[in-house]
Amino acid sequence: MTTDPSTAADGLSELMIQALERLCIDLALAAGRLIRDDRPRHVGVAATKSTDTDVVTVMDQRSEALLHRLIRSARPDDGVLGEEGVDVVGTSGLTWVIDPIDGTVNYLYDIPAYAVSVAVVTGDARTDGAWRPVAGAVCDPCRRVVHHARRGGGAWSRPEPGDGTDHPGAGDPERLTVSSEDRLGRALLATGFGYDPEVRARQAEVLRHVLPQVRDIRRIGSAALDLVRVAEGTVDAYAESGINAWDLAAGWLIVEEAGGLVVGQGSHPGKALTVAAGRGLIEPLRALFQPARH
Ligand code: IPD
């Protein structure tokens, strides 16, 4: 599809943005295939991070290493920031923000809701509020689809290539559109929880106020898939505090290109708060999740 060049992001040409989107798709698909097809029967925990339950598996490490190697070979001057520790400052002004497995606990337990998230951003990816995505892709290897967007190009889902037509998602690329639900009481809200018990206690307190006001909540276990579900309208909204740039970079753009909004306590989503929804739900939800209310 063509895009008005005036929508090109941050001085990048439309052709460049298209090429970056293509690379996001290829990278997310390559890592998605790796984590699905090479998943050991018993996934071992290689390390823990913030708490004993915040785990890293060998496949998180292999997936991040693969993504890093492919990015270095295709775009040697770009920065790379990955969930499992890759942190390279580039010289081009572009940084790849990657989550090699989002939904690691699902992956550990063989629950088919995990993803690879790959985005390329401008600005300082290490500081909330100082960066924005230009292109991104979220591969859902269990559904065999990749969701993707570039700024100004719409949000799309396409089947994993080389696959038959006997599974959901196969067929032509499909344009994504957020749900038109604007009644809080009818909204199906995805959310998630951090690993730190104290943070969880606060999140539970917030939910005590939120739950009676919405249709229901879903805790799917992958922020990237939550955001993609908002984009495709299979949940009405998503809200969570504590998420990182790699959880949200690709999904943020996919929601916006699907006609939705993604905000935080201010206009930029981030660790303090991330809320994604269609225009009618965004402000009521943001208000519900403001910490001062609880
Ligand atoms: C986690 C998932 C989860 C969200 C957590 C994230 P990880 O990422 O996205 O849904 O609730 O806040 O940390 O650890 O599976 O990559």
- Biggest beta-sheet profile: 8 strands, mixed
| Cα shape | globular
Which molecules are bound in this entry?
D-MYO-inositol-1-phosphate
User: What is the SS-derived class?
Assistant: alpha+beta
| Count of runs of 4 or more consecutive helical residues | 7
Task: Itemize the secondary structure elements and their pairings.
Layout: H1 14-37, E1 45-48, E2 55-57, H2 58-74, E3 79-82, E4 87-88, E5 94-102, H3 104-109, E6 115-123, E7 131-140, E8 145-150, E9 155-159, E10 174-175, E11 188-191, H4 197-210, E12 216-218, H5 223-232, E13 237-240, H6 245-257, E14 261-263, E15 274-277, H7 279-289
Parallel strand pairs: 3-5, 11-12, 11-13
Antiparallel strand pairs: 1-2, 3-4, 5-6, 6-7, 7-8, 8-9, 9-10, 13-15, 14-15
Helix pairs in contact: 1-2, 5-6
The protein binds D-MYO-inositol-1-phosphate.
Give a brief outline of the structure.
The chain is an alpha+beta fold and 294 residues long.
Q: Would you kindly provide a written description of the structure presented here, covering whatever features stand out?
A:
This protein is an alpha+beta fold. Helix content is 32%, strand content 24%. The chain contains seven helices and 15 strands. An eight-stranded mixed β-sheet has the order 4-3-5-6-7-8-9-10. Strand 3 and strand 4 form a beta hairpin. Helix 1 packs antiparallel against helix 2 and helix 5 packs parallel to helix 6. The radius of gyration is 18 Å and the shape is globular. The structure holds D-MYO-inositol-1-phosphate. D-MYO-inositol-1-phosphate (IPD) binds next to strand 5.
